[in-house]
Design a protein that fits this description.
The radius of gyration is 27 Å and the shape is globular. By secondary structure, the chain is mainly α.
Amino acid sequence: MPEQDLHICLSFLTFPRRSTPSDYQQHKFQMYLRHCSVQSPFKRIILHRFLSSNPNDDVQRVLDIITSTSTPEHLKQSLKSSGVFLSNDLIDQVLKRVRFSHANPSQTLEFFRYTARRKGFYHTPFSLDTMLYILGRTRMFPHVWDLLIEAREKDQSLITPRTVMVVLGRIAKVCSVRQTVESFRRFKKLVPDFDTNCFNALLRTLCQEKSMTDARNVYHSLKHGFRPNLQTFNILLSGWKTPEDAEGFFKEMNEMGVTPDVVTYNSLVDVYCKGRELEKAYKVLDEMRDRELLPDVITYTSIIGGLGLIGQPDKARDVLKEMKEYGCYPDVAAYNAAVRNFCIAKRLGDAYGLMDEMRCKGLSPNATTYNLFFRVFYWSNDLQSSWNLYKSMMVEGCLPNTQSCMFLIRLFRKHEKVEMALQLWGDMVEKGFGSYTLVSDVLFDLLCDMGKLGEAEKCFLEMIEKGQKPSNVSFKRIKVLMELANRHEVLQSLTQKMAVFGKPLLSS
């Protein structure tokens, strides 16, 4: 091969990984290969790696390699022989799938490091943050810090305030406030700009994972080392449960010369509405208009929710019309708030009427909308209404979420409706919605109680094929029944498949 041709081919094979090749670049390269002197099989390898026929197939292929290999060497060899072009976009998609499928974190880390070691390759911030989330979720915190140090040495710009929030969020879930703050301080040597944005990331984490009292104490202890800004106060204001606390921070904000915005006022309106102080909420609306800050759909959604709490669902529905007069049009969330009010009042006819109105306005009810009805049907033990609603939901193309699935599967369990439960499970497997782990625990309970071992085995295998690990509790229950039924070969096969997710379960 001429030296010039070899140089061009190698340059394409090491295409900068910060972005995937554009359509024009792919077309240009393909035309070049047709006329250059590169011969097979080298030519075919380049084309296969550079021009993937179906990115989704490649993502699934890589995910299968991660879930099916048990050693780093096996993983590397499988990736090399796959011929998949490991672009940034593909890696982002693979890690996203791993995050939601709870695939093997150790092998995923090996995949991440294997791709990072390629010459001229740089991971995206999304890839780094997703990998850190996966490690933090499984409490592999030493690996988290090792990976952050590696990222700092190769490309420090990858470590952002979002990275800080991702890592601290996982730490705060299982560690104390003190340990979370100590971890925050460790980032001072890792983040290029350890500033107020990082401080805000810590406060947001504490508001989400700890108590507002903890967030307030940390704010007061660290605020002198940073310069609190509008976002700082908006984070803290959005978390308060009592009007007194929110008013105190709003006062401090004004004393520091920080001008409130719509988000700030929305937090005040929300806390007043949740505290059933609608008169104060309406005064905030007047103050916003005086400052030429127009209330938005979030403002009115809080008002609608607050009116429901004081038993005025009809007045809340009128707010939907009032919004339009101010040039603000309700979205799905605003309608959901009004629907919720009627569901709480057991006025399902009015609630269904609002759903029809949504459709007439070009808005599609979402899973949250349907869950408002599922909750009513679940607590009234109304199986048929739940089933009818589920079928209409699927016909409309609105996929249930985990909460929808749990309302349904628990009702099926209570009524011992195996066929309905299996249809729900089949739809989940086919369309990819809901939490396999949470739903399968209830499903396996039902199948085992009804002696449906064959169906339990089938669902168990489907779950594993999706890269999802059945809980040990479910497996142990199936194991006992398999042993009683003398189905030892099937049990041995299931045990081996479970071993893919980690340490094999003992058969004794």
